[in-house]
Amino acid sequence: MKTCVTLHQEELPRAWYNALSDLDRPLDPPLDPRTGEPIAPEALAALFPRACLEQEVATDRFIPIPEPVQEAYRRWRPTPLRRAVALERALGTPARIYFKYEGGSPTGSHKANTALAQAYYNRVEGTRRLATETGAGQWGSALAFACATFGLRCTVYMVRTSYEGKPYRRALIRLFGAEIFPSPSDRTAAGRAVLERDPGSPGSLGIAISEAVEEALRGDGTKYALGSVLNHVLLHQTVIGLEAIRELELAGDWPDVVVGCVGGGSNFAGLAFPFFGEARAGRRPLPRLLAVEPTACPSLTRGEYRYDFGDTARTTPLLKMHTLGADFVPPPLHAGGLRYHGMAPIVSRLVADGAVEAVAYDQADVFSSALLFARTEGIVPAPETAHAVHAAVELARRCAADGEEKVILIGFSGHGHFDMAAYEAALSGALQGVA
Ligand SMILES: *Cc1c(COP(=O)(O)O)cnc(C)c1O
Question: Could you tell me the distance, in angstroms and rounded to a whole number, from the CA of residue 236 to the centre of ligand 1?
């Protein structure tokens, strides 16, 4: 029985898998809010590098990973696929539970996979600085690290609740050389507008995106980088699933269910889409693909599938997605990375078509499974990741009740070493349900 499988360095995937190539019909295009007409990718050239805009609409099945990005990946990739044997025993389940561990990246989550690609393309195209938002700080630290790798400056707007609640993520962002501001801030018109209405605003990703976009549009060699939602971001994350497929083959297993947490949808897509591609190519059966979100920010299970803005100030193009409304401000939640009102358009489409299922859990239940995972497997899940862990634990418990030998694969998006305040709350019983 193999309990840990990792590919050799030379087996690192050389191309990303593009799920756009396998959709039944093209994605509904982003719309210009002023005209209601589809927006041409070139119209976003002030914000994103050309390479990423091309990837946004590309229909090639595979897109080569540039050699310098592969080299940067090789510092910690391929990542291990582990089997959670001790967790299985503790649950008394006949299910086999695997997890693809993305916590070993330099900043502790999957976000480095796209941060490095985006920083590289910007560098090649002459960008001098990247502006971005960050929720819990994982994206901000990944982008700060990527900018340091490829020699770009970096400005981060961090959602205020996390800026105050996660001082060490804040420090990590500065350690990698980026400047960082709590959002809403008084540095931008978007931030000032929110502060005027609500001086005590906890902030949200939607607000922080507005601020970072405004910063990028000042036209001083600055562009904008988004850590999730967009097609090119999901594309860059598919390195996770491509590795996992080959590692499962080495383990001699194949999942019945693939589970991942969803904020904007990128780590889930990165793991799940290559399995979707294998099924489309007729090589393998399609596993159940299960997206897990918090009940406090339930865009897939409670949102509407329609066109909406990506940010609160309503400056972005309209995206067809599951949304709780662009001005929805989710309650403060330990899984800061899951506090986004919208969802990646490709994930939304696959949910609407029934290829992806969604479920929502309350953070109090989520943390009890996270503690069980940490105590059995010795790895502390990020609060976001803990949602996927909890869904897997629930599935495995059902297998125990029914005597079913299902194979469950968890997208383990990151470790929770910067989230000890949340774990202390869980341990002292102070953690509230927020639904
Ligand atoms: C950001 C983050 C998420 C949520 O973002 P997605 O784009 O949905 O993946 C989940 N887990 C971790 C560890 C994160 O840092």
Answer: 14
